[in-house]
Amino acid sequence: METLADHLKALSDPTRLRITRLLCHGELCICDLMAALDMPQSTISRHISYLKKSGWVRGRRSKKWVYYSLTEPEHPVQAKVLATLREALPAMQESRGDYARLRRHLTAKLASRCG
């Protein structure tokens, strides 16, 4: 995607916005995002693909897993959008639920030593 409008349009979808907010705090795999958002793998993968094409997200392969994280901002507007998302996170009710589910999932994942 080339224009700033296209770049910002990627965040206009509520699911992609929720994924971006989760990735503000570090890299996650698809199973982590599935648990946090309570959505199927196909939905998460489709939105991750869109975020990758628009330049917001990158993937890093580690053995059988792909870990996703936010890219370094290439445009000042992108940096400001990410800063705004980070500041607004605590006030967003749905973010609290996402983070609570993610914490439970990561705690269980660590306890079972999977991934």
From TrEMBL:
Show the SMART domains listed in the entry: HTH_ARSR
Q: According to its UniProt record, what is one Pfam family this protein matches? A: HTH_5
For this UniProt record, the keywords arranged alphabetically read as follows: DNA-binding, Transcription, Transcription regulation
**For the HTH arsR-type domain, which residue ranges apply?**
1-96
Top-level taxon of the source organism:
Bacteria
Q: Which GO terms describe its molecular function?
A: DNA binding; DNA-binding transcription factor activity
Q: Could you confirm whether the keyword Transcription appears in this record?
A: yes
PANTHER family on file: ARSENICAL RESISTANCE OPERON REPRESSOR (PTHR33154:SF18), TRANSCRIPTIONAL REGULATOR, ARSR FAMILY (PTHR33154)
In its UniProt entry, what is this protein called?
Transcriptional regulator
Which organism is the protein's source?
Answer: Desulfovibrio psychrotolerans
Query: Organism classification, top ranks?
Result: Bacteria, Pseudomonadati, Thermodesulfobacteriota, Desulfovibrionia, Desulfovibrionales
